[in-house]
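Sample pair:
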Amino acid sequence: NGFYPDFVRIGTDSLFSAYVYNSKSIGNVSYNKVQFLVLDSSATILKDSVYAEEENVLLVSSTEKIGSDFLVTGSYYLGGTKAFVWKLDKNLNTVWRRVYYYGDYEDESWLYNIGHWSDGGIIATGTYFDRYLNPTSKHVYLWLLSLDANGCLDANNCGSDIGFVE
């Protein structure tokens, strides 16, 4: 449980952050929820929004402010680790949330950092490995994901779950 240690400065006296917390455990499986926060300089919560869905082993890895919106990257487990990019508006409402995995559905994919292109597109960096070809995490590959402003790879690949092979 805890804040992702990266805060995004909104103005002169406010910050954006994500708080991931354990909502329940069943056996050895941990389920998490994420709460998005706007805080003032004294850490008083000015605004918050909790994403209603529980995710298995949810992690937040980076945040970025683009215009008045926020982009959040991270991962969760669903048959394999899936990476996500999440866009929130200034009121912490979800604009879109896209899930990405490199290769097959059961492979492991993570995104660690995010930025933006000058045309409004998004760039994210991460790693992946193919659990069938390389069943251990000793063969991890770098992953660069270039998206349009809506989180799409192209006009034909913009669903909620996006998987592709380069």
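Residues 107 and 144 are 16 Å apart (CA to CA).
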